[in-house]
């Protein structure tokens, strides 16, 4: 089935849904124009002013309706994501559930998070109030088309900051569907405006005085470009960028748990997760056993149709993602790495990538400090816990890590020595509404989710009356 809808406005077609399972272009969308941006800014700014005078409870009630609407449209939202970027429908359904929970969480906690904060001062009466700051530009990636938007939209809706969304050009269907559902649920126009804008218009928006800040989740390249504009315009920014997360197996790990968790920590979402475990760090005496565990699991992983509930690994999001990852694996091998496992190629025009295991990656291998965004596991052999910690920290990224140990105190002591924003003990990566998400080093700055995420674009307005 080939459906191509050409809209009349605009002329450059960069936003399109190309189904990664078949390579077919299902729908194209015209770029938004400077006039569309101006309209969104005007509407968003007017809403910001209106919201400054209305109670949080009103927005919390609407937000709960948005959560209910997400649940009611679960299948539609999940399928849109699968068509846009190829993820397993079962995983897309899980993403919708998580998003409904995030939206509900902020609906329920919003008033508490926005309450005035008393300050202790011997000099007088002091407190601060949390206030909105204006329109926020959200630049989001395709790997979790709904979740990435919701993480920013829900807390800012409570705060009273309208969002202009620039979503990834490969997931326009999911972007527009969610924006439409927000309005259908009863949110005022301008609360979330999805625009198919190009990079120049993103920069223009960031510089507009009605915009208070910008958040981006994506690559270092995209993050640096957007942060540069924000810096020049003196606007606040938050960045959620890539990761090269370590999965460290300590000497007292429970190997049944390791076996149950390790393969999924790499293969979930076809390995396209910023916090996927990408570098498995194993002590020498257990190294061969771990390789066998991973090989066995990867050989049983069924790569194929993302709509089929028995499929384990979906195609990658795009042809270019497939080509980039292949080039990285080739570079790793040319640089001395050993390809210890790769399945046979999958037939068809889909953007598949076989689960792959690389070893013997030395520090001088060009891939040593690169994120591989797909189902490729790198396994490292170390001789001590100290060496494992040093290797985990020898990365320009600092997003998350996983530590396996049957002694929780031991795991926590090691976790505290890893230079990342998040650590997961005896578990793969996790994201929940109440847990702050974000990294350090080249993985970005700022946090999303939890109360910390709600504070990202808040004005903590001090009100002080000195004692006479
Ligand atoms: P990307 O190329 O940076 O794209 C992300 C978003 O930024 C897209 O909407 C993209 O638009 C936009 N963009 C890129 N350059 C821009 C510019 N100069 N001006 C304005 N917008 C720009 O990232 P990606 O490679 O698709 O995404 C995968 C990366 O995201 C991985 O590194 C992954 O680890 C990271 N990620 C991080 C987190 C986290 O929370 N830390 C979560 C998920 C993903 P177009 O699509 O139009 O290019």
Descriptive account of the structure:
It is a single chain. With 468 residues, this protein is of the alpha/beta class. It has helices spanning 34-52, 56-72, 74-85, 89-114, 147-159, 172-184, 199-207, 220-232, 255-267, 287-300, 319-334, 385-393, 408-415, 450-454, and strands spanning 15-19, 24-29, 117-119, 124-131, 135-139, 163-166, 192-194, 211-217, 236-240, 245-249, 277-283, 338-342, 356-359, 376-382, 397-398, 401-404, 424-425, 440-441, 444-445, 459-466. The strands form five sheets. A seven-stranded mixed sheet has the order 12-13-14-11-10-16-17, with helices on both faces. Helix 13 (408-415) links the parallel strand 16 (401-404) and strand 17. Helix 7 (199-207) packs parallel to helix 8 (220-232). The protein is globular. The protein starts with 14 loop residues before the first strand and ends with a strand. The model is unreliable at 1-11 (pLDDT under 50). Residues 139-143, 166-169, 199, 202, 216-219, 221-222, 225-226, 240-243, 274, 371, 373, 399, 437, 439, 443-444 line the site of NADP nicotinamide-adenine-dinucleotide phosphate (NAP).
Jot down its keywords.
alpha/beta, 468 residues, binds NADP nicotinamide-adenine-dinucleotide phosphate
SSE layout and pairing:
Layout: E1 15-19, E2 24-29, H1 34-52, H2 56-72, H3 74-85, H4 89-114, E3 117-119, E4 124-131, E5 135-139, H5 147-159, E6 163-166, H6 172-184, E7 192-194, H7 199-207, E8 211-217, H8 220-232, E9 236-240, E10 245-249, H9 255-267, E11 277-283, H10 287-300, H11 319-334, E12 338-342, E13 356-359, E14 376-382, H12 385-393, E15 397-398, E16 401-404, H13 408-415, E17 424-425, E18 440-441, E19 444-445, H14 450-454, E20 459-466
Parallel strand pairs: 5-6, 5-8, 6-7, 8-9, 10-11, 10-16, 11-14, 13-14, 16-17
Antiparallel strand pairs: 1-2, 3-4, 4-20, 9-19, 12-13, 15-18
Helix pairs in contact: 2-4, 2-5, 3-4, 3-6, 4-5, 7-8
The structure holds NADP nicotinamide-adenine-dinucleotide phosphate.
């Amino acid at each position: 089935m080939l459906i191509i809808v050409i809209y009349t406005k605009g002329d450059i077609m960069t936003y399109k849904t190309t189904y990664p399972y078949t390579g077919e272009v299902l729908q194209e969308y015209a770029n938004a124009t400077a006039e569309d941006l101006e309209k969104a800014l005007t509407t968003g700014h007017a809403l910001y002013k209106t919201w400054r005078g209305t109670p949080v409870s009103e927005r919390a009630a609407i937000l709960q309706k948005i959560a209910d609407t997400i649940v009611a449209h679960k299948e539609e939202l999940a399928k849109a994501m699968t068509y846009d970027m190829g993820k397993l429908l079962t995983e897309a359904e899980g993403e919708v559930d998580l998003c409904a929970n995030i939206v509900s969480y902020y609906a329920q906690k919003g008033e508490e998070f926005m309450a005035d904060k008393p300050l202790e001062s011997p000099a007088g009466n002091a407190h601060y109030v949390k206030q909105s700051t204006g329109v926020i530009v959200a630049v989001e990636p395709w790997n979790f088309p709904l979740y990435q938007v919701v993480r920013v939209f829900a807390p800012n809706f409570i705060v009273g900051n309208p969002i202009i969304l620039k979503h990834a050009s490969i997931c326009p269907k999911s972007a527009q569907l969610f924006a439409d559902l927000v309005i259908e649920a009863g949110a005022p126009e301008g609360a979330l405006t999805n625009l198919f804008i190009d990079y120049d218009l993103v920069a223009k928006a960031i510089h507009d005085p009605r915009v208070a800040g910008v958040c981006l989740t994506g690559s270092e390249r995209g993050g640096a470009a957007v942060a540069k504009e924000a810096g020049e315009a003196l606007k606040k920014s938050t960045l959620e960028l890539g990761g090269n997360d370590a999965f460290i197996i300590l000497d007292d790990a429970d190997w049944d748990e390791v076996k149950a968790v390790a393969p999924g920590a790499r293969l979930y979402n076809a390995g396209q997760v910023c916090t996927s475990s990408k570098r498995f760090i194993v002590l020498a005496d257990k190294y061969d056993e771990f390789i066998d565990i991973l090989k066995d699991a990867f050989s049983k992983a069924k790569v194929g149709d993302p709509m089929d509930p028995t499929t384990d690994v979906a195609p990658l999001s795009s042809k270019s993602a497939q080509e980039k990852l292949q080039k990285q694996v080739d570079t790793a091998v040319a640089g001395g790495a050993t390809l210890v496992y790769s399945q046979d190629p999958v037939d068809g025009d889909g953007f598949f990538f076989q689960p792959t295991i690389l070893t013997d990656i030395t520090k001088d291998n060009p891939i040593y400090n690169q994120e591989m965004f797909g189902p490729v596991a790198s396994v490292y052999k170390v001789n001590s816990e100290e060496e494992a910690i040093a290797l985990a920290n020898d990365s320009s990224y600092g997003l998350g890590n996983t530590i396996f140990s049957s002694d929780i105190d031991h795991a926590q002591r090691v976790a505290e020595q890893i230079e990342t924003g998040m650590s997961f003990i005896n578990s793969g990566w996790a994201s929940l509404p109440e847990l702050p998400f974000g990294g350090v080093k080249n993985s970005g700055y700022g946090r999303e989710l939890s109360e910390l995420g709600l504070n990202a674009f808040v004005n903590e307005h001090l009100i002080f009356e000195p004692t006479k």
